[in-house]
Amino acid sequence: MNATIAGLLTGLVLGLAAAFGGFGAFLIVAVLGGLGLLAGRVLDGKLDLSQLTGRERR
């Protein structure tokens, strides 16, 4: 899945959350989506958090 499709799906989910759940649901979905993005980037090896944790990656 490329970035365009991922962005489209994210926008659709956020739009549905805003339409049916209100602003609070929109914020919850946006925050959880951001956390999921960070976790995915770490697992793919595209984001290195060793400087923040003080641990060196081997």
What does this structure look like?
It is a single chain. The chain is an all-alpha fold. The chain is 79% helix and 0% strand. The protein has two helices and no strands. The longest helix has 42 residues, at 3-44. It is elongated and about 45 Å long. The model has no long low-confidence stretch (mean pLDDT 82). It comes from Amycolatopsis thermalba. The chain crosses the membrane at residues 12-39.
E-strand count: 0
What percent of the residues sit in helical stretches (DSSP H or I)? Answer: over 70%
Tell me the Rg in angstroms: 15 Å
Global mean pLDDT: 82
Distance between the termini: 29 Å
Order of helices and strands: HH
Instruction: Identify the overall geometry.
Output: elongated
Strand content: under 5%
Question: Low-confidence stretches at least 5 residues in length (pLDDT < 50)?
Answer: none
Output the structural class: mainly alpha
Largest sheet: none
Query: How many distinct helices?
Result: 2
Brief description of this entry?
With 58 residues, the chain is mainly α. It has helices spanning 3-44, 50-53. The longest helix is centred in the middle third of the chain and has 42 residues, at 3-44.
Write the layout of secondary structure elements.
Elements: H1 3-44, H2 50-53
Main features:
58 residues; mainly alpha; 0% strand; elongated; DUF2273 domain-containing protein
